[in-house]
Amino acid sequence: MIEVKQLQKAFGNVNALNGLSFSAPEGEITGLLGPNGAGKTTCLRTIYGLLQADSGEALIDGIDAKVAPLEARKRIGIFPDKFGLYERLTAREQIAYFAALHGMQGAKQAEAVAHVIERLDMTAIADRRATGFSQGQRMKVALAQAIVHQPKHLILDEPSRGLDVMSTRILRDLLRELRQQGTSILFSSHVMQEVAALCDKVVVIAAGKVAAQGTTQELCELTGESALEEAFVKIIGTDEGIAA
Amino acid sequence: MSNPLLIVWRKELRDALRDKRSVMAAMSYAFFGPLLMAVAFFVLISQLTDESDVGINIEGAEHAPAFIAHLQRQGIVEREKPWPDGQQPIVLAISENWAENIAKAKPIEVTLTADFSAQKQRTDINRVERAVQSYSNQLTYIRLQMRGIDPGIMNAIDLVKHDTATKGSRAALLMGSVLVFMLLSVFFSGMNVAIDISAGERERNSLELLLSQPLTAQQLVWGKALAASCFAIFGGILSVVLIPFIFSFLPLHNIGISIALGWQSILLIIALLFPLALFATALQLFVSFRAKSFKEAQTYISFLLMLPMLAVFGVEFSRVKHQALYYLPITGQHQALLDIIKGEALQWLPMALSAVATFALSALLLMLIGRMLRSEKVVFGL
After folding, report:
1. d(Cα A52, Cα B179) in Å, to the nearest integer?
2. How far is CA A131 from the centre of its chain?
3. Would you kindly state where each structural domain of chain B is located, as residue ranges?
4. Keyword set for this entry (chain B) (predicted)?
5. Which positions in chain B touch A74 (Cβ < 8 Å)?
6. Which ipTM score applies to this complex?
7. Which of A131, A150, A169 is a domain's end point?
8. Touching check for A187 and chain B: CB below 8 Å?
9. How confident is the model over B155-214, as pLDDT tens digits?
């Protein structure tokens, strides 16, 4: 369970987060939908403790990353905004590195790495160095790094950006499977289709606070529109910065 | 392998070892530096010990055949080849009343014309002067003897020179510059790795994810610092082992110098380089973690390299002698290395204290980097 309570964060004069509150329960996919610059990435960075909120708290299973960052981070898998790979390491080595950082060792580590490689259908590239990987292959490695330690919480920042259809499908299937296993999944996006296709709950963010939340159904009902896109535009009051 | 520090260290080391550029950088400085040095010394020695004839212009040779014969025995002959461009001729002019003045035992005028400021001709000019002087002395002795006077009365004072310079201490003069190579190799060898694991990490967008993993910034920084230090000390060891080896091929005995570093000395030098390797890495990481790209970091670090150079060359050239130098990082190791090579009594306490000070300062720097990486300003460049 990821809970965000009344987060406030200012960079200079700009209020990036302005009393943001929502929760991402277990076994559900929660989508953070918002235009560019709404505060999605800032919110996620605050959850894993890279940014310090001015006030409010972000809890992972009741643990505040501000107070106990390591404890909080042990419980999450992160698929970051930008993922750089170590070009001279093989895919397997990179995944093993992150497994090790999460305290997995020896046979248990090798097994977990092998399992995730198989799950993401990347056996063919597992022992190749990352130089020359396609965007989709890179995404798979980053995804494998995020889930190799079987976290109870998975946070993804704009995961489908720059992915082709096949990669996007793999990603969606994986997220649904993880939801089945009781993982609480939080992902940010500005792509309407993706959110509509995947999310159990949508949290619409605009200007650093929650503009509305609920299932796609509820959002549509709330605004009296039939399509999420229309509902969304109505909620945030503009169609700027949104991809259909 | 459960300690995150060790995990980071192992990963960075593996990553860096696969980077041919980093490995080459670590090796090449330690290898080519001393080699270049050796070539320079080889040229210098062959110039210093050049025993070939000195060719000069002699005017009025016909007046003093015996004198010319003497000069020839001393290796000073009439020049046949033209003077090279940019070199002033050395001219020895013998006055025509030579025979007359010899007969009357009067001073004879012999003029030596040359550019006395020319470094290259310095030894040639000195040899001509010495040859003329020795002929003059011979004449004086003969004249005194002929008059029944003991030539010994000419020497009121017999200055006996006792050269207390041991072979080692004379070598120290030359080795001072070589030492600089040993010290700097530590700074050069780990440089590439240090940049790659700090600014490089940021440039390839992997820093944020790494900082979001369950390890402290301190563990991350120490793991990285130790990996880069391994490269630094590897370069250091390579140069410490290679320098005596390469120099053993030089004809140093011709100029009265011997460089013989026992294995104990070599081990001691390597031990001294260990804290320095960590210090070099800490400094480099401190600078390049602030840089946004590899290139930017390289610029900063090239400025940073001036620091050890200034410290070492400054002390070397200004001949500053102050006890404090023994305790500070860089200069402490420099002084200790000088003592080791000179074969002087080693100051164990200052040596140990400077090692501790170097280590402490490195730890402080690494702590600051760790704190820096917890700052959102530095990480995200806000």
Report:
1. 48
2. 25
3. 4-45+167-380, 51-154
4. Membrane, Transmembrane, Transmembrane helix
5. 214
6. 0.89
7. A150
8. no
9. 778 777 776 665 555 566 667 777 788 888 899 888 999 999 999 998 888 888 999 999
